## 1
Amino acid sequence: MLAPLTNQQSEFDGTASEYDQTWIRQLAQSGYGLIQTCATTVEAGGIAFARQLGIHKDDHLPGLKMMASAIRQGGGLSAVQLHHAGHRANPHLGGIPAPASNGVVDGVTAITTEEVETIRDSFIKAAKRAQLAGFDGVAVHGAFGWILSEFMSPYLNNRKDKYGGSLENRARFTIEVIEGIRKACGPDFQIGWRLSIERYGLRLEELREVTSEIFDREMIDYLDLALWDSAQLVQEGSFRGKSMLSVFTELPRKGVRLGTAGKIMSAQRAGELLDEGCDFVLIARAGILQRDFPLQVKANPNYDSPKLPVTAGYLRQGGLSERFINHLRGWQTFVAPGSL
């Protein structure tokens, strides 16, 4: 699966650009089983990045339809990653910070219960737009401290309403989004959930408990476990010394599929993760470096990605837009400093 990759190459109003279309067409011919879009705004006020792809209004549908069609023609499945930045929404881009708690953003009070429900409904409406655009499903972004992850965190969420306090209450926002999408889009529309378990005050034991329930109820079709490093070990708590991945692969998951991302740069590492209990792997940086990573792996079991950093010229030659390359210059150790 292609991981959702922020690339900041859409138009300023969230419309898919010619660069988005070229990127998707390249990926569609690259052998991925499923391709996710970048993080895509479910509300205009939930924007985090300049030139972020949007799905919060019907004007976005024509460009999204072209993307879904290209992926289908290439033989893969498609998903829009649904995103709201929460308290990290960028006011300079028209974003409206929506913190779970007071004191997280200076001068901004926590959103009300009604505002939480409005954002929940925006996720559901965005999923319906994805379905209308011809996508096979959506991936709900519950990672990296964005709004659903934020509400899950006891560090960032000290609310007193039904969306705060107990683990059940803090998970309610995510559960209601997933259940709402299923009701609106039907049983044959795929739902993925991206989960991270590090930073932002998140508790591994709690997230394992929530995931266990979601697996048991088969609320989603697949879990995208976003690790910074797929090989890392748990450093504290009741699972100390175990691999973070094993904490989740050991859970009974019925018909739900589980995959992980995190420094998967070679055919060997992809194979190891399948042996460790994953149903699939998510390719991120390796797919930027070599668009057809799956085809390279299929042709060569010893395939390894080019070493980072690479020059801007290398990325340009591979077909990346200047907008995407400029975005990558902000990543640590991806584009060689000063390269043209």
## 2
Amino acid sequence: MTSKLVRIREGEGERDAGPVAQEKVLAGMPQQLTEHFFTNAKKNFFCGIWSSDTGKWTLTYSEDEFCYIIEGEAIITDAEGVSERVSAGDAFCIPAGFTGTWETIGSVKKFYSIYEG
């Protein structure tokens, strides 16, 4: 097995585009684009660039995710109703077990790293 550095350059990853699953959508008709760059050998760690346009939907996390907002802003609200606005330059983690909502204001783009333990 060879190991090499994997660069994350927008426009060079494996792309998957489409709507947010309709059963999760609370507002709007949000479209998302995932540009996937890396999956480890155990298939439990992933990273890439994700973006979406305006909309709001429910979240249920079974994985841990690190996010870095590249551009735009969103509001993340937990199950208790506590909201946090995130915008370009913000870095944060969403832990496994998190439930709540994600609301994209305009459009948003983020780097993501996901670990499924």
